[in-house]
Design brief:
Elements (H helix, E strand, L loop, with lengths): L1 H7 L4 E6 L1 H11 L17 H13 L10 E3 L5 E4 L2 E4 L5 H16 L14 H33 L2 H24 L6 H26 L8 H27 L8 H31 L7 H5 L8 H12 L1
Antiparallel strand pairs: 1-4, 2-3
Helix pairs in contact: 4-5, 5-6, 5-7, 6-7, 6-9, 7-8, 7-9, 8-9
């Protein structure tokens, strides 16, 4: 009963409670068979045999028979498990729900009872995710960016450009985090999955432009010209990819399920930010940052493979033939 009182005195837990023990002792104190000899001065049973005899009579009373659902007995008749029902106060924010669960767990963990009692409600299955979700999100984003950087090194062959690529992708995810707030959403399992997925989706928009920029004609040293040529070659394809992806998710606007509606909002932002960063920010950065193409040295060597505009010129010559 002391634990029950401590638990209900918590900031986010309220009364009344449905306690079989409290009702049982109150019933025994009013029953002439037990209130005179069986109960001690504190109102508790001092003899276990009398306790179980009285408990059987208590559970047989129609007024308290609903407590049968709150008790489970061993084969020898002893109590195996029991539960006391309490309620959390109504809280709105996710942080308050997490704190309500944690403080009640701490209260139960600090008791000297053996075995230790523990609080449980089905809502904890969902609230549990918010205890670790922020660190899990950060960890997964970092691991995703590291993995993308590692793979991009084998494609772009330029550490500086890979660094720019990862920075732009990270900026897109930061923008997505801001959009979650303005959409009125929470950091939950759905938005976390979308944020991690976004890394793999948006890197495609940016990496193509950087790849074509690096593989322009080695004789063209002007960065603006290289960016213009790269955008002319791959820009329409990237824009087409953005448009077709948006068309693919458009039916989700009419979904009744909140999960799909959140999925649409997140993907809509992913497409918008990927388009802006890939087709606007990325070319601007490449035109400002001095990046030496790794294929310049290859093009200067005899027998080196043609690149960029040279490929286009060769294709035209082949068609003329």
């Amino acid at each position: 009963l002391a634990l029950q009182e401590d638990a209900t005195s918590l900031k986010r837990t309220t009364t009344p409670t449905v306690s079989w023990l409290e009702d049982f002792l109150s019933w025994a104190s009013r029953d002439s068979r037990y209130n005179g000899t069986s109960l001690d001065t504190d109102g508790y049973f001092s003899d276990s045999s009398q306790f179980y005899t009285a408990l059987g009579n208590f559970l047989a009373d129609p007024s308290y028979s609903y407590h049968n659902d709150n008790l489970r007995f061993n084969d020898d008749g002893g109590i195996k498990t029991s539960k006391i029902n309490a309620w959390h106060k109504k809280v709105e924010s996710t942080e308050e729900k997490v704190l309500a669960m944690i403080e009640l767990r701490k209260e139960c963990g600090d008791t000297q009872l053996s075995p230790k009692p523990f609080p449980y409600t089905f809502a904890y299955v969902y609230i549990e995710q918010f205890v670790i979700i922020y660190w899990e999100l950060v960890l997964n984003l970092i691991l995703s960016l590291v993995a993308c950087a590692f793979v991009s090194l084998f494609v772009l062959h330029h550490p500086g450009v890979v660094f720019l690529l990862i920075m732009i992708v990270a900026l897109i995810d930061i923008d997505l985090l801001g959009s979650i707030y303005f959409w009125g959403l929470d950091i939950n399992s759905i938005t976390t999955i979308d944020l991690v997925m976004a890394v793999g989706l948006v890197i495609d928009y940016v990496a193509h432009i950087m790849h074509y920029y690096l593989h322009q004609d080695a004789k063209v040293s002007d960065r603006d010209t290289r960016v213009i040529n790269a955008m002319a070659e791959v820009g329409p394809s990237v824009l087409s990819g953005c448009a077709t992806t948006f068309i693919g998710i458009l039916p989700l606007v009419f979904a009744k399920s909140e999960i799909f509606r959140v999925f649409f909002r997140m993907f809509f932002n992913i497409i918008v930010y990927a388009t802006i960063h890939g087709l606007v920010l990325c070319p601007v950065v490449l035109s400002l940052v001095p990046v030496t193409s790794p294929v310049v040295a290859l093009a200067a060597e005899p027998g080196a493979r043609p690149t960029g505009a040279e490929n286009s010129a060769l294709d035209k010559e082949d068609s003329n033939l």
